[in-house]
Amino acid sequence: MTQRATVLLLSALAAAPAIAQIDVSGSVGLQSGYTFRGQTPGDSSPSPQLTLNLDSASGWYAGGFAAGMHIGDNYGYKLQGYAGYALRLTSALSGDAGCSQIAYTQSHANDFHECYAGLSGERTSARLSYAPRYFGFRAKVLYAEISTFYPVHPRFNLIAHAGLLYNLSDGVWPGVPARSRYDIKLGIAIPFGNWTVQLAREHSPDDGLRYYGYPVHPAKSWSAGVSYAF
Q1: pLDDT digits over 50-99, tens only?
Q2: d(CA 193, CA 189)
């Protein structure tokens, strides 16, 4: 049903009268390693990434994300498509809701979909996501996250992210915590026009539960990246 809903959202966007008012934006970047919700699936090799967004004047949006990554020893790509609706609530606050489909070219057994809802302010955003079969396992999972930044200087921003993965199902499957797992990221972002350089320290507890094929990594690690927005 989620996949059908995504197709319907994309169809509605394509047929909207405001099609001429669609804004296209995105970014290309290179990260020192691919990390998803506190876990690294491969050997921490550099990950090229691409994001593309389509935003309509009526509030409907759609987009896609692609990243090169390893799952164990297998190199491939994570592909994510999403669609939803955004609404301006006040002059400084907006909300949005939608669904996404995530696929891995090197391991389709880990493909999954989820739906989300969130709020965004001038510097802070929060989102809650629900996946009925997280990473292909028989586990219903919630993921709550909050991200923020603070401009210390026009060319220097402090950034922070915190997330909590919560297992709603009984029992434990590979990579799904018995009940919950958190991840934290603190760092700096330095913009140069459309370019941004980022350096961060990441932390997620090593509870001995990893997604199938994921190697052991330190609980704390540094990450770096550069991106170009268009």
Answers
A1: 999 999 999 999 999 999 998 878 899 999 999 999 999 999 999 999 99
A2: 12
Q: Taking CA 17 as the corner, what is the angle to CA 12 and CA 23, rounded to the nearest 5 degrees?
A: 80
Q: How many residues are listed for the chain in this entry?
A: 230
Mapped onto helix, strand or coil, the DSSP state of residue 111 is: coil
pLDDT of 119: 98
Coil vs helix vs strand at 138: coil
Could you give the 3-state DSSP secondary structure of residue 207?
coil
The helix (run of H) or strand (run of E) holding residue 4 is helix 2-15
What contacts 79, CB < 8 A, 6 or more positions away? 64, 65, 66, 102, 103, 104, 105
Query: Cα–Cα distance between 112 and 100 in angstroms, integer?
Result: 9
Strands (E), the chain: 23-31, 47-55, 60-71, 74-88, 94-104, 112-120, 124-131, 141-153, 156-167, 180-192, 195-203, 220-229
> Which residues neighbour 23 within 8 Å (Cβ) at sequence distance 6 or greater?
53, 54, 55, 56
Q: Which residues of the chain have pLDDT under 50?
A: 2, 8, 16, 18
**Which token pair is 127?**
């989102």
Q: Are 151 and 127 in contact (CB under 8 A)?
A: no
Q: Which three-class secondary structure state does DSSP give residue 116?
A: strand
Is-contact 138 173, C-beta < 8 A? yes
Residue 210 CA: distances (Å) to CA of 28, 139, 182: 29, 14, 13
